[in-house]
Design brief:
217 residues; alpha/beta; 2 domains; 5-stranded parallel sheet; 9 helices; 11% strand; binds CO-5-methoxybenzimidazolylcobamide
Length: 217
């Protein structure tokens, strides 16, 4: 337990220090020590990114530092991804997922997408900066059971409502469940815009999506 705490702390610190090699090494050390990959994300790297975000707000870090921190997390994810994916093989259902228009943050969305495919979903990832019409087009084309949206900015979260309205206008809303996530959004916001669910993190997101599929069967 002490060792686990120590490695996760090392991982967090490597992110805060923008030390890409240190992040990769700590991820490998964590996996060798049997620490679950998701814990490395939520209790190591994500905590480090929170500190980076605070430093940016205080003016101690600059945009270039946010970029490097994002890169460091992505490099760490490359080490962890095979372990996050190890799940059920059967296709549970289809999920169209994307980060909304105007928003380039994709680390959290990628974690959710990876964990959904690890859990057995076929994931159609539309990437970042996705306008409402592309969500609509993807729902028409892929006929997913679920649409997932991510937003990290208070200035882009309102795009989620636009996607829901666009799905309604296209007559597609009743065919899909909609789940939203990302730091500025909440359960209240999900209710306000007419989404079916909000997930605090990827684990909760996967569990909600799984519950919807088992309700259908
Ligand atoms: Co940006 N950024 N950023 N940034 N950035 C934040 C979000 C910020 C909070 C930093 C701060 O000031 N403290 C702030 C937003 C303030 C606000 O809106 N209130 C901010 C800002 C201001 C900006 C810019 C405007 C800076 C500028 O240009 N002046 C700019 C905007 C660019 C744009 O999008 N148009 C910008 C740019 C960037 C980078 C590109 C440099 C980089 C992103 C790299 C990338 O994603 N490829 C970046 C980063 C790294 C951050 C921080 C430091 C980390 C974000 C992150 O990846 N967190 C961030 C501070 C922070 O959040 N602490 C910050 C880790 C990730 C695992 O968490 O994404 O929340 P998260 O995902 C979680 C859950 O939320 C949930 O599950 C995930 C995993 O458990 N979840 C879902 C997320 N989506 C979900 C979907 C679901 C279910 C659950 O279902 C579909």
């Amino acid at each position: 337990m002490e060792r686990e705490k120590m490695i996760l702390e090392k991982l967090k610190e490597a992110i805060v220090n923008l030390d890409i090699n240190g992040v990769k090494e700590a991820c490998r050390e964590a996996i060798d020590a049997g620490i679950p990959a998701y814990k490395c994300v939520s209790e190591g790297m994500a905590k480090g990114l929170d500190i980076v975000g605070e430093k940016y707000e205080k003016g101690e870090y600059f945009l270039a530092d946010l970029v490097v921190a994002g890169e460091a997390m992505k490099e760490g994810m490359k080490v962890l991804e095979p372990y996050l994916r190890a799940g059920e093989a059967e296709a549970l259902g289809r999920v169209v997922i994307g980060t909304v228009r105007g928003d380039m943050h994709d680390i959290g969305k990628n974690i959710v997408a990876t964990m959904l495919s690890g859990a057995g979903f076929k994931v159609i990832d539309l990437g970042v900066d996705v306008p409402p019409e592309r969500f609509v087009e993807a729902v028409r084309k892929h006929r997913p059971h679920i649409v997932g949206m991510s937003a990290l900015l208070t200035t882009t979260m309102m795009e989620m409502e636009k996607v829901i309205r666009a799905l309604e206008d296209a007559g597609l809303r009743s065919r899909v469940k909609v789940i939203i996530g990302g730091a500025p959004v909440s359960m209240d916001y999900a209710e306000k815009i007419g989404a079916d669910a909000y997930a605090r993190d990827a684990v909760e997101g996967v569990s909600i999506c799984k519950s919807w599929i088992s309700e259908e069967r």
